[in-house]
Specification:
Elements lengths: L2 H38 L7 H5 L6 H36 L1
Helix pairs in contact: 1-3
């Protein structure tokens, strides 16, 4: 694996982690909104999935996913830093 492909893999992983963080954040927001709506509705109201067409979001799963994506982002950031250091070392050796 060359330095360029390691750097690109790190960037792609970081982008994927960023998208995962965004999705988890939206799930947390949706779950909070659904919870507030459920509290304000009467027992005769339709279940939350009838209104949105989706299953109700779970805050606990979304928070776990958010934490997993944080670790993914950190790991990919380290990959990018390592590729940068290797490239810097290679340039210093060749000069």
């Amino acid at each position: 694996m060359n330095v360029n492909s390691a750097f690109n893999a790190g960037v792609q992983g970081l982008n994927k982690a960023s998208q995962g963080v965004e999705k988890a954040s939206l799930d947390i927001s949706r779950a909070t909104t659904e919870s507030q709506q459920a509290e304000s509705q009467t027992l005769k109201a339709a279940p939350p999935e009838a209104a949105t067409g989706q299953a109700p979001a779970r805050v606990d799963e979304a928070v776990v996913n958010l934490r997993v994506e944080q670790f993914n982002a950190q790991a990919n950031t380290r990959t990018i830093q390592t590729a940068d250091e290797v490239l810097g070392t290679l340039i210093d050796v060749r000069v």
